[in-house]
Amino acid sequence: MTERLLVIGGDAAGMTAASQARRLRDRADLEIVAVERGHFTSYSACGIPYYVGGDVADAGDLVARTPEEHRAKGIDVRPATEAVEIDTGRGRVRLRDLATGAETWEGYDRLVVATGSVPTRPDLPGADAEGVHGVQILDDGLAIRRVLERDRPARAVVVGGGYIGLEMAEALVKQGLNVSLVDGAEQPMRTLDPEMGALVADALRGIGVELHLGERVEGFETTGGRVTAVTTAERTLPADIVVLGLGVRPNVGLARAAGIEIGTVGGIVTDRRMRTGTDGVWAAGDCVQTRHLVSGEPVAIALGTHANKQGRVAGIDIGGGYATFPGVVGTAVSKVCHVEVARTGLNEREAAAAGFATVTATIESTTRAGYHPGATKIRARLVAERRSGRLLGGQIVGEEGAAKRIDGLAIALWNGMTVEQMTGLDLAYAPPFAPVWDPVLVAARKAAELVEKDLRS
Amino acid sequence: MTERLLVIGGDAAGMTAASQARRLRDRADLEIVAVERGHFTSYSACGIPYYVGGDVADAGDLVARTPEEHRAKGIDVRPATEAVEIDTGRGRVRLRDLATGAETWEGYDRLVVATGSVPTRPDLPGADAEGVHGVQILDDGLAIRRVLERDRPARAVVVGGGYIGLEMAEALVKQGLNVSLVDGAEQPMRTLDPEMGALVADALRGIGVELHLGERVEGFETTGGRVTAVTTAERTLPADIVVLGLGVRPNVGLARAAGIEIGTVGGIVTDRRMRTGTDGVWAAGDCVQTRHLVSGEPVAIALGTHANKQGRVAGIDIGGGYATFPGVVGTAVSKVCHVEVARTGLNEREAAAAGFATVTATIESTTRAGYHPGATKIRARLVAERRSGRLLGGQIVGEEGAAKRIDGLAIALWNGMTVEQMTGLDLAYAPPFAPVWDPVLVAARKAAELVEKDLRS
């Protein structure tokens, strides 16, 4: 008998789950229906700033697979269709056709909830005015670029100094706007320790972004329903366009209403095979919470790479195979103009919050042998546990070729290595690629020395 | 009572050992004498091709620390001084002043043997002719560049297609020479599997190097003691200059004569603290053999990064601290013009020789998100053990930003990860740095699928 798999959400997690299930089970065995509120499937939300900034000419380039391509693979994709209710008892989902408003119930044997995240919108006067943009789905990117081309705004205010905020600030600078960035914290990128965050602030100022740190947004001035300025306690920043980069939270309304378990950090709870506690229901992507493998705590991190992996695991499980998603170590990377920034694991604040006593080493080195053309500065910071010397986290700020070294730290973390063990790692060396002591090794050495010094003290 | 540490060899291993010992023990406690045959200390031999090619203007840039700088740190460095005999019974070394020929005995309480390697010179007619250059010590690099500037040679033949051979071929192309490369093997870089080696051959041809693969050099034609051509069974290649890149072997004559144990692959045998079996004698760098952590076999790999690490471990041990050098996983990296090449662990041939049955996955991907400007092709190949799926090795060929990904594979190898475990790794993702599935993850996925398929077959 043919089973039916219903997937709610047509982006990374949902469509990867659908594709993997299709790879493992043929059409006679498994019918697959995927519904998506928007018009696009399988696109790179992380690519939106590069489309807005003009590095990517065509939004279509961000789409890995269109609904038509999915259909050709035997996945019945229905765009502009919203799931409005899950009835787990009867195994069905109420769908609304967003064009006509018509509603129907669609039955399922297996269900994947991949409803993504919702951007944080401040509960402040004017926050819903025209000209205040979130950056969440590809349609948001299209809307911003349309405004840039049509209205030629001159002044932009970006609210929030996380990854999306920084990337959008750079994109708007590239498009010739005068850009201010406001963040309530004293530094951009709070996932970095302050001294590393300061380097990112310098990079932003270097490309002409006016930073207002430690200032909370108190409201948005509007004229005729259009935003004209952003106000903080300290100042009024005139704005033709405002971009919100205040982070996101898991979009779990539908799941919660259906009685699917929501965890302590607001995401759907799953096991390592992405099964929810509800029979026949999997969840994957930004709407779930997962385990941080260093802190041991639940976390909800919205990131395309996690969504893809989780979708793959769910799809393989539905397809009858075996794969697991054990958790994350909090790796992230970004760049502001020529400055690359990366982090993994816990920073000092996060480590302290998880109850770790730490030793921290910061080093400066170069990406290539110092004498080799193109060598650029790199700063690396390692956080290690006192006594044990176990690596807890790492941060890197540098230029071309610096940031991807974070992968080595992420893999070392994943395997529970100590900084002393890391000093022996056989990393690739040749003058165009690294100094004879790779910066990762220099940092490990310094951290190991500090751990030992601390032991003796 | 003041002890005396004597170090034989003033490059990476020896001077790192001396520096670490000095860091941990002051002058009143430990006198340090280091002897070096050449004129330079602590230089980057790996940088020689970049000096010859002109990327590095001044040979002095390759020197990390001069004899004077070492002396200022309390290390009595004696250049142009050769150790000609070790008398372990009486704890003394016979030294020869290369300027005067005068010999003296120098006593030691602790001895570090860091005598490096000797280049393989073919036992063929004309191999010692003028114009046939090895690339071993910095003086060799100076000699080659002097010849290039003085004699303006037009035609070069490079013998040997390993790392040094390739890097020297490119350096000579950069200097405007017509370059041929001869290697007895069917591909350059035998440490790669043939299909990856073929990409390197293409890159060499792309910069104009004429390749003669599968051809053994049979001799060197000379006129008046100067080389004029290289002959193989198939042809005669006219040459104004010949560069040998035939690899090196540990330089252990001195140690062997002193009764210090030499191992099965020709290097000095040490424990993980770099202690030889002879009381009071440590060894480090190209002259030692070490353990390959994947094959479990002894190996002798001449590489500056190992020499530095081993020197550090020896110096810390002599200094009263504790550090170990557990072995290597065979990581190496190089580039030919814009093509980056890297490898770690075992290739298929090496894995088979070590008794492993393997599954191999090759994938093509891009260094950045496909739509991001600057994305370039990358090809990755993973060798995994059948059944267990344990990673045994990896190879990467690609362009800007490709090769350093080998570090992630090296760390995964180091920790004994399976390719299935690797599919979950939390690697850094953002469009300027990687596709949403990093090439390393794509390769791990494919390898994991092949391992599973093989299990079922």
TrEMBL record, chains A, B:
This protein's UniProt keywords: FAD, Flavoprotein, Oxidoreductase, Redox-active center
Domain Pyridine nucleotide-disulphide oxidoreductase dimerisation per the UniProt entry, residue ranges: 334-435
InterPro entries the record matches: FAD-bd_OxRdtase, FAD/NAD-bd_sf, FAD/NAD-binding_dom, FAD/NAD-linked_Rdtase_dimer_sf, Pyr_nucl-diS_OxRdtase_dimer
Cofactor(s), by name: FAD
Gene3D superfamilies hit by this protein: FAD/NAD(P)-binding domain
Top-level lineage group: Bacteria
Residue ranges of domain FAD/NAD(P)-binding in the record: 4-304
Record PANTHER family: NAD(P)H SULFUR OXIDOREDUCTASE (COA-DEPENDENT), PYRIDINE NUCLEOTIDE-DISULFIDE OXIDOREDUCTASE DOMAIN-CONTAINING
Family designation: Belongs to the class-III pyridine nucleotide-disulfide oxidoreductase family.
Name recorded for this polypeptide: FAD-dependent oxidoreductase
Organism encoding this protein: Actinomadura parmotrematis
